[in-house]
């Protein structure tokens, strides 16, 4: 089951002002953002951060099939993918995002990029456990084109 959450733009933020935007130009995220994560607690934490950083709608999926359904139905502006899911890796999701030109980062417990398929070894990786600041830094460093290919 997919969990789509729409958040009002004027919702109060608990994120420090310095981390709310990537620069004076505005929020880090805009529009719809996909989070693919099979750990509910982590997914909820990331959803809160992404919302506070400007996403208008957050789509959460716990497996590849759910994520692919969302990708087929929604014009996404960015994504955060847990690499190892209960049903395998998020490689198929990454392939679909690349095909649509959607920037994304991987989030994983693996710190060694060589464990990823060769075509994704140069992509940004957030190593678990990660913080709100890490998410901000990853997208600031790699924006606007997070995907290097």
Automatic annotation (TrEMBL):
Residues 32-143 form the Response regulatory domain. The modification 4-aspartylphosphate is found at residue 82. InterPro entries: CheY-like_superfamily, Sig_transdc_resp-reg_receiver. GO terms for biological process: phosphorelay signal transduction system. Gene3D superfamilies: 3.40.50.2300. The keyword Nucleotide-binding does not apply. Pfam families: Response_reg. It comes from the Bacteria. Keywords: Phosphoprotein. This is Response regulator. The lineage of its organism: Bacteria, Pseudomonadati, Pseudomonadota, Alphaproteobacteria, Maricaulales.
């Amino acid at each position: 089951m997919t969990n789509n959450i729409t958040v009002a733009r004027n919702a109060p933020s608990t994120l420090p002002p310095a981390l709310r935007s990537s620069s004076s130009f505005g929020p880090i995220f805009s529009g719809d953002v996909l989070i693919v994560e099979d750990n509910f607690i982590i997914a909820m934490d990331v959803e809160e951060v992404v919302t506070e950083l400007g996403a208008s709608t957050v789509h959460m999926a716990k497996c590849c099939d759910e994520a692919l359904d969302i990708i087929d139905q929604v014009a996404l502006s960015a994504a955060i993918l847990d690499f190892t899911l209960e049903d395998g890796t998020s490689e198929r999701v990454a392939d679909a995002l690349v095909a649509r030109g959607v920037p994304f980062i991987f989030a994983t417990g693996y710190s060694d990029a060589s464990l990823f398929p060769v075509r994704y070894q140069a992509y940004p990786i957030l190593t678990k456990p990660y913080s709100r600041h890490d998410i901000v830094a990853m997208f600031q460093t790699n924006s606007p084109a997070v995907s290097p290919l």
